[in-house]
Design brief:
Blueprint (H helix, E strand, L loop, with lengths): L2 E5 L4 H12 L5 E4 L6 H6 L9 E4 L2 E3 L8 H11 L11 H5 L1
Parallel strand pairs: 1-2
Antiparallel strand pairs: 1-3, 3-4
């Protein structure tokens, strides 16, 4: 399995994804992106996104579609956590917290 996270080292958005992956015991590579040069992010997302984090998992780029989306966290949940991050019995409460 090849998993890479494109990140800014001190971004709270990146830190939360990294901590979740670490807690789940997932092997990944963290790759630092320059705030001044985001070409790698633009290439990875086909020009659709310029923010971080971006997950690159087995040839697929996973990124947020809006400022309040949870697509990366939900992807991590589906592929690595078995539904433990977003349990069905409390679905909807996450939206309130966001």
């Amino acid at each position: 399995m090849q998993l890479t996270i494109l990140q800014f080292e001190h971004s709270p958005y990146c830190i939360s994804v990294i901590r979740a992956l670490q807690a789940l015991g997932v092997d990944f590579e963290a790759r630092e992106v320059s705030n001044a040069d985001r070409r790698e992010v633009l290439r990875a997302t086909g020009g659709q996104y310029y923010q971080v984090p971006v997950l690159l998992h087995e040839g697929q780029a996973i990124f947020e579609s809006s400022g309040d989306s949870t697509e990366i966290a939900r992807y991590v949940d589906r592929h690595f956590a078995g539904g433990r991050l977003f349990p069905a019995e409390v679905e909807g409460l996450q939206r309130i917290l966001i």
